[in-house]
Amino acid sequence: MNLTTFIIVSVIKTVIALFVLLTAVAYSVWLERKVVGHIQNRWGPTRVGPFGLLQPLADGAKFLFKEDLIPPHVYKPLYIAAPMLAVMFALTSISVIPIGNVVTIGNIKTPLQITDVNIGLLIVLGITSLGVYGVALAGWSSNSKYSLLGGLRASAQMVSYEISLGLSLVGVLILAGSFSLRAIVDAQAGTFWGFIPRWNIFQGQIIAFFIYLTAAYAETNRVPFDLPEAETELVAGYHTEYSAMKFAMFFMAEYANMITVACLASLLFLGGWHGPLFGPPLLQAILPVFWFGLRVFMFLFIYIWVRGTLPRFRYDQLMAFGWKFLLPMAIANLVITALIVAIRS
Amino acid sequence: MLHLVLFLIFGAICVAGAVNLLVQRHPINSALSLVAVMASLAVEYLLLGAEFVAAVQVIVYAGAIMVLFVFVIMLLNAGEEARTGGSRVAILFGIPGMLAGSLLVAWVLITHSGTQEVSAGALPGPPREIANLLFHDFLLPFEVTSVLVLIAIMGAVVLAARPESIEQQKREG
Amino acid sequence: MSLAFQASQALPRGTDYLRILPELVLSIFGMIIMVLDPVVDQRRNQKALGTLALIGSLAAIASTLWQARAPGLAFWNMVQVDTFSVFFHFLITTITAVVILTSYEYMEVQQIRVGEYYALILFGAVGMCLMSSAVELVLIFIALEISSISTYILAGFRRRAAISSEASIKYFLLGSFATAFFLYGVALMFGATGSTSIPTIEQHLRSGSIPVLAYVAIALMFVGLGFKVAAAPFHVWTPDVYEGAPAPIVGFMSTAPKAAVFAVLLRIMFQIHAPGRLGLIWVAAALSMTLGNIGALVQQNVKRLLAYSSIAHAGYLLVAFAALPQNGIPSAMFYTASYAAMNIGAFAVVSHFGGAGERYVTLEDYSGLGRRSPVLAAALTLFLLSLIGIPITAGFFAKFYVFSAALQANLVGLVIIGVINSAVAAYYYLRVIVVVYMHDPRDESVLPAVPLELGAALAITALTTIYLGLLPGRVLDYASRSAGDLLH
Fold first, then answer.
1. FRET pair for C172, CA 20 to 30 Å: which of A103, A231, B79, C71?
2. Does B164 touch chain C (CB under 8 A)?
């Protein structure tokens, strides 16, 4: 592949990935409103389009045309930069996430991901760890007590849970022996005894899976860990002072992060795109992407389900849970996995 | 060629961030400049073929340590610094001295490069090699670092604790 | 890249652990103290923890002597046990033990919580010991940080005195700056030679032409290390820090970390034949001697006076570094040991006499000490005479060997500067002695009796001072053998 084709292919992939991601973001908002609505015995959006399917478009238009209000008391440079940072980091991390096998179109062979790097997982973790700046700076630069409290809570919470999150993934890394997301998925191909898939949660990483899921909820500031934007005490937390498109950016960042987390969970614990393949060659090429999408959808659904079901933690409970329960569990899981792998080899 | 251009760009960002860190009057701007320095350093590592170190640099420095910096600045609600005139000695000797020092190092590096220097690709970059270095060849320094961290934590505790005398403790039981 | 993993054994062996045994013992005792601190009864824990720390340092001395029988490399060429490292291990652990002895009474009088205090001393000693045996710049750096950070914290232990916090902050800021210089030097040395291991660097520099980068690297490392030993022009922190820090700690940090840094300097300067050594050392030594002694002339505070004196002594010691290796190394080692004995002794007197809150530290307070407490006064006089370099004290032979080593290297100029400075120094040391014996006491109140532990510390340091002043032969022989080991 020469440089020109490389650039063209990369641009096409980037555009497609961004388009898919943003659409997914828009429709996970719709999904959330629908599902939560049904959980609460309501209908959710119904007016715009069939089943309210065009609601995201209407919302987007509304955000675009609203007046972009900048309160007079804010620290302007950071106030403006914060939502951009948030959305930028949220969208960047998708670039190393693979959604399927390597495909061949004509004589161009390309993996179904924007770029395949051999430390993909570390890059995702690195970019996610930067994501906290958007929230923290929004909270600080708004120069309002609710925002500041929200920002403080967010940064403390994200730094605390990042440790458990990272440690819960080390077990998977030990099993796969690589940081490359593609290699991790490949290591999960095949089955035990012909019917149990060799997914990592069936390879003894089930505790790690739940630790990851819990920590990921906290990382994305979702219920039951949504203290940074707890509306009963902090109005809207770190984005209290934001309106119009800037507010929408935080919104987009939150849902894009959810999708990234869901993708990672599928890749690392549930075997990525592995699933039964059948039918004509074209279908065989598309099926992995479908299986992957299905898993991501499932995780998004669980996210929403949890939101509709669980109450919010208290702040001290949140910290105690993270440091005193999740972290020791993650360390224990790591030690046990390492011992098992060492004994086996 | 592309590598060199990128290297220069991020090197410039790095230096600019470092200078900005000193010039800015508000602590939060300084902290963010430091984040920029850390991030562009990570890119430099990446360009040198040390992708693992680059990722760790971002995760540890930009993603964890600097977040705590920002957190503390927010918590203390630190305002803008008051400017003092700056020390005469610093202006008279410090800045020329610093310039002379950096020029000397730069001159040495430019005029004497290519003779005995170590090429970037020859050094360990992949995680596996780094692990072998860290947990085998450099095992002792790695383990000794734990003592370093331990005394740093102790220091924080000792210096942050309120001074209380033994008398007080006796009274309290 | 072929990894050494397959070539050598995968796991450390027993001898590897034996070769870091003193460090292990010190760390374990440090941790035991930390764990016991909250458990032991507060009223008695002062002495109990101190005794534990003392036992720890004695055990470290014993393990050093045991380790001396099995010299060699350990942990994949990270540390090297030889007579050189054993000499410095013995010196540092002994200093630690004596300093713990002098701290007993001080901590009680000043009413400072001791838990972390003794643990930090032991952990600091771990770093210093490692510095003297490490043959890898990365390990040296980490060890240097351990020793520095523990002393930064110890300097701020008089929590109720603002001057102590000031000392801690100043020391910390300037010290971190200096460490950065050292690290930069290490990085450049790696760039110049492709290695951070001292034997490899030595081979590299010997085999071919010396890269210019190596000169810069050595200079930067010298800046960092020069700061730690308070050599001019990197000495400005010394008086303020010594004035603010607790007196026993000043005794500690003016001897043990200095000994360790001098060990590192000896390795860097002599073992790897540091290019550009002579010029650097010449300037630093001449400046340190001159600035230190001139500064000391006008001091009224005894701690500040001793601070300037320690700058001057760093200068005398550096003279040895400009000499030829076979003379310079033993004389530098001998000087380190004798300076440690006399300086800790002097600070032991200062810490006892200072009283609660270190109230009595000016020269005037010392007037009439000869009448109020003849024993203390006699000890102080002995240490001060030794610091001057009067015969039958350690200081005499220390200076004598250093200057004769320099003369053999034809460094006449440096020796002349040194001798003139010694004469100047005699003035301010004698001034203290005059005040102690000739002036009438301002305060006739009875001094608290010298407690047993402090008495032991004073006896050890005084006897060492006299022993090295009368019979320097054995120590010097050992140092010469170490020099041979260091140079192969």
1. B79
2. yes
Any B CB within 8 A of C126 CB:
yes
The shortest CB-CB distance from A119 to any of B39, B52, B67 is to: B52
* Count of CB atoms situated within 10 Å of the CB of C38: 9
Q: How many residues would you count in chain A? A: 345
Q: Please give the pLDDT value at position A28.
A: 87
List chain B residues with CB under 8 Å of A122. 52, 55-56, 59
Number of domains composing chain A: 1
Per-residue pLDDT tens for C440-476? 887 777 778 888 889 999 999 999 999 999 999 999 9
Could you say which residues from 69 to 128 on chain B have a Cβ atom under 8 Å away from some Cβ of chain C?
104-105, 108-109, 111-112, 115-118, 122, 124
CATH class label, B2-80+123-172:
mainly alpha
The model carries a pTM of 0.89
Sign of CA dihedral A335, A336, A340, A341: negative
Two structure tokens written together for C333: 């080692």
The domain ranges of chain B are 2-80+123-172
Task: Please answer yes or no on whether C194 and B118 come within 8 Å at the CB atom.
Answer: yes
Taking an 8 Å cut-off on Cβ atoms, the answer to whether C211 and B138 are in contact is no
Cβ partners under 8 Å of residue C363, min gap 6: C299, C300, C301, C302, C305, C431, C432, C435
Cα separation, A220 vs A300, in Å, equals 12
Give the per-residue pLDDT at C331: 92
Structural domain includes residue A33:
no
Whether A140 sits inside 8 A of B56 (CB atoms) is: no
Which subunits have 3 or more CB–CB pairs within 8 Å of chain C? B
CB contact under 8 A, C116 and B167: no
**pLDDT tens digit sequence for A20-59:** 888 888 888 888 888 888 888 888 888 887 888 888 888 8
**Other residues' Cβ atoms within 10 Å of the Cβ of residue C197:** 20
Return d(Cα B26, Cα C321) in angstroms, integer: 46
Residue C448 is classified by DSSP as P
C131's tokens: 């510095």
Residue to mutate among C5, C151, C209, with most B CBs inside 10 A, is C5
Q: Are C390 and C396 in contact (CB under 8 A)?
A: yes
**Domain of A243, in residue numbers:** 70-344
The one-letter amino acid at A241: E
Question: For residue C264, what are its two tokens?
Answer: 């590192």
- Residue A345 burial class via C-beta count within 10 angstroms: exposed 0-12, middle 13-18, buried 19 and up: exposed
